[in-house]
């Protein structure tokens, strides 16, 4: 698909990148078959192919309307279309660029988002990315939970489980761990469970306290500069540990992992950070990429499968299976430990969480969640496991079946007294 860039985008890194991505699209339409919003709405402009046409028009300097922005806003950025595309179109990168251009052009034309929407986006960017603010806010939300609107109540767990004890053994082998923004407050046991499991395997997890948000929330809500600043701050925080020999940067939230693995690309034109960003991306591993190397040791350490989790439904997050192209590792690991793992029908489709999407597009998000839960429940699970805090929280808001990170189940088997 040939694109002639408008003057304001010509010879810019973003413009040239977007032009190259659009040029790979042969408008075959395979992507529409796996696009959740197209399946729900049946509108070509709410599928990847239609959105690519919209973004092509934007890149060429054609008129932009609020409808253009609406169709791009409705995209989950689940990247299922990338897994389906026979031409290798990097749709997720394209929609990040397209959204930014649309927002900027509409702002220049004096067409701003409604005040309520601007406030919601500001709150998400400023509240979710600051653990020191989010933790107390969550506790306050739990206190007044019955009074909250339903969409917010679904995001606030009634109780937060205690995390247990972080291991204190010092090991020669060390790996970094990104603590995350909301995960320490919403589900503190995930990272502690990860530390305990790796401790049993002779690896010490280290948290660089100066590291903060991975940058995904700001970047995907249009604040590219703020997102890049988050990335640079994390690189600065991790670099001394990398120089000291940290073997990997472990991710327990697949959404963060997908973002950090992209640092090298996003900062490739930054002369100060390009080389270090590429190194950080190369070292980043989802936990499901780390533990298979320890499979034999895990089998020796593992006790009996917990009675309440012998049969689990696994929900692979989009950021894991489409963003990072990691498939089958969690299922194989849990199956090897004696757990019966079931995938539901259409396991490739998004649950509707998609970062901030469930707050900004609640109607579509909850339709997707309820459909996903119906299919997960059809497997008759005793528990549901996933690999991303957003998916876990989103799914738990619609079911009484326990939803947890898969490493918590592994931890219960190798650290039964934890």
Average pLDDT over all residues = 93
Q: What value does the Rg take, in angstroms?
A: 21 Å
- Class computed from helices, strands and strand pairing: alpha/beta
The coarse overall form would be globular
Strand order of the largest sheet: 2-1-3-4
Gap between N and C termini: 56 Å
Helix percent reads 40-55%
**Could you give a short account of the major beta sheet?**
4 strands, parallel
Low-pLDDT sequence parts: none
The number of helical runs is: 24
| Number of strand segments | 8
Estimated share of beta-strand residues: 5-15%
Give a written overview of the molecule.
- By secondary structure, the chain is α/β, with parallel strands linked by helices.
- Helices cover 51% and strands 7% of the residues.
- The strands form 2 sheets. Strands 2-1-3-4 form a 4-stranded parallel β-sheet. Strands 6-5-7-8 form a 4-stranded parallel β-sheet, with helices on both faces.
- The longest helix is centred in the middle third of the chain and has 20 residues, at 224-243.
- The chain is globular, with a radius of gyration of 21 Å.
- The N and C termini lie far apart (56 Å).
- 46% of the residues are buried.
Brief summary of the model shown:
By secondary structure, this protein is of the alpha/beta class. The chain is built from 24 helices and eight strands.
């Amino acid at each position: 698909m040939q694109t002639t860039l408008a003057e304001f985008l010509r010879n810019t890194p973003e413009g040239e990148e977007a032009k190259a991505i659009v040029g790979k699209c042969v408008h075959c339409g395979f992507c529409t078959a796996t696009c959740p919003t197209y399946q729900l709405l049946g509108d070509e402009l709410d599928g990847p192919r239609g959105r690519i046409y919209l973004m092509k028009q934007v890149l060429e300097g054609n008129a932009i309307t609020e409808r253009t922005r609406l169709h791009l806003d409705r995209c989950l950025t689940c990247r299922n279309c990338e897994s389906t595309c026979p031409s290798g179109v990097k749709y997720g990168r394209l929609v990040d660029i397209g959204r930014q251009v649309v927002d900027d052009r509409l702002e220049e034309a004096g067409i701003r988002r409604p005040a309520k929407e601007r406030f919601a986006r500001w709150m998400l960017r400023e509240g979710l990315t600051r653990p020191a603010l989010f933790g107390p806010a969550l506790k306050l939300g739990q206190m007044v939970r019955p009074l909250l609107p339903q969409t917010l109540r679904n995001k606030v767990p009634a109780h937060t489980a205690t995390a247990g004890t972080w291991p204190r053994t010092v090991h020669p082998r060390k790996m970094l761990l990104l603590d995350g923004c909301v995960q320490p407050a919403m589900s503190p046991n995930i990272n502690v469970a990860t530390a305990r499991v790796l401790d049993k395997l002779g690896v010490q997890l280290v948290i660089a306290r100066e590291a903060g948000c991975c940058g995904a929330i700001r970047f995907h809500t249009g604040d590219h500069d703020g997102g890049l600043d988050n990335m640079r701050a994390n690189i600065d925080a991790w670099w001394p540990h990398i120089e000291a020999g940290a073997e990997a940067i472990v991710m327990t939230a697949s959404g963060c992992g997908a973002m950090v693995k992209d640092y090298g690309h996003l900062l490739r034109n930054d002369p100060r950070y390009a080389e270090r960003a590429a190194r950080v991306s190369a070292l980043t591993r989802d936990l499901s990429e780390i533990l298979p190397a320890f499979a034999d040791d895990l089998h020796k350490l593992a006790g009996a499968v917990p009675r309440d989790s012998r049969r689990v439904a696994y929900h692979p997050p989009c950021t894991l299976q489409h963003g990072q192209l990691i498939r089958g590792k969690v299922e194989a690991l849990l199956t090897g430990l004696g757990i019966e793992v079931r995938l539901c029908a259409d396991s490739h489709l998004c649950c509707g969480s998609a970062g901030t999407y469930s707050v900004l597009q609640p109607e579509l998000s909850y339709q997707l969640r309820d459909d996903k839960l119906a299919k997960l429940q059809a497997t008759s699970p005793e528990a549901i496991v996933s690999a991303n805090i957003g998916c876990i929280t989103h799914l738990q808001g619609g079911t009484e079946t326990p939803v947890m990170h898969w490493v918590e189940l592994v931890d219960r088997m190798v650290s039964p007294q934890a």
